[in-house]
Amino acid sequence: MAFPVERPRRLRTSAAVRRLVAETTVEARQLVLPMFVAEGLAEPRAISSMPGVVQHTRDSARKAVADAAEADLGGVMLFGIPEHKNASGSAGLDPHGILNVAIADAVSEAGDALVVMSDLCLDEFTDHGHCGVLDDRGRVDNDATLAIYAQMGVAQAQAGAQMVGPSGMMDGQVGAIRTALDAAGFADTSILAYATKYASAFYGPFREAVRSSLRGDRHTYQQAPANIVESLRETALDVAEGADIVMVKPALGYLDVLVAVRAAVDVPVAAYNVSGEYAMVEAAAAHGWIDRERAIDETIVSIRRAGADIVLTYWATEVAQRLHRR
Ligand code: PBG
After folding, report:
1. What is the CB < 6 Å shell around ligand 1?
2. Average pLDDT over residues 141-170
3. Ligand 1 mean position to 104 CA, how many Å?
4. Most buried residue, 49, 118, 181, 255, by CB count within 10 Å?
């Protein structure tokens, strides 16, 4: 037999044919921009470990939401950074707290153009930096935290959030939040559940972004990187408790998890391209070691190819603008 028998290269011969046979697409509507809004800032503040990302003032956040809507993004995910943190994270429940006012600002800015989502977790609001409240022995108290999450979810819905994103990995969090939202008349407010969230070093730059005061680690509530069967269990529980969308986080080291989760559920699947994944590309590109735009595009298409219907990424607006220029 004479080789080659088949010539797959034929379908790579021109840009037009490559475009014709592309299996995976990235569209602006599939991208969600995570944003940090800080209380008491006069000017946006740079985050040194995430070049190009800032802690927003309320005004600059409004502008970024308008840009996101203009770029046709699917949504924004808001994180609030309060001036004062305490043991119970009470600033997260306050209707005048930074996250809740930022939600209202975003909704008034974006209207129906995109989905306004909010992080539903205590770590930005607690002085100890954990995702829940602590018991008298200093352990994260699951059930006491659920009661606070339930109130926080209602506060965010009242502020106008169309989708809340519980990211604390407490057992029963989706069910507790769903029950509270329904009881408060917010049956239409959706839950994007961080169903499988790993205890990852790749959240490093995020800790600077939210001025986290965490001492210790999150190993008693976030998952171990070695596990995947456990991810499927966590995801199934969240769907059973009422999650409308489930998320895998981080993305790049966990694309196998994304494949498995996509196959296992019948709800949309999101993936979070986290701060450390962002920082690695930006740092290498700043040294001239990789082609920045190609690396970004390859990152996003890989996450989509593995099965993410929705991608949260700090590059969302930039990528969407680039898509529109093509
Ligand atoms: C917790 C939360 C974290 C991130 C999103 N939500 C930090 C953590 O779990 O330690 C990380 C996001 C990123 O690294 O980009 N509220």
Report:
1. 119, 121, 123, 131, 167, 203, 206, 218, 274-275
2. 98
3. 22
4. 118
Q: What percent of the chain has pLDDT over 90?
A: 96
Q: Which domain holds residue 53?
A: 24-325
In the chain, the number of structural domains is: 1
Domain assignment present for 290: yes
18 falls within a domain: no
* Ligand 1 atom with least separation from CA of 202: 14
Question: Which one of 167, 211, 220, 275 would you pick to mutate in the ligand 1 pocket, going by the greatest count of ligand atoms within 8 A of its CB?
Answer: 167
* 69 located within any domain: yes
Q: What is the CA(206)–ligand 1 centre distance, in A?
A: 6
Share of the chain above pLDDT 70, in %: 100
What are the pLDDT digits (tens) for 84-128?
999 999 999 999 999 999 999 999 999 999 999 999 999 999 999
Closest by CA to 119, choosing from 155, 80, 146, 173, is 80
pLDDT of residue 219: 95
Ligand 1 atom 5 nearest Cα: 167
- pLDDT of the residue at 211: 85
Domain assignment of residue 135, yes or no: yes
Q: In the predicted model, is pLDDT for residue 38 greater than 90?
A: yes
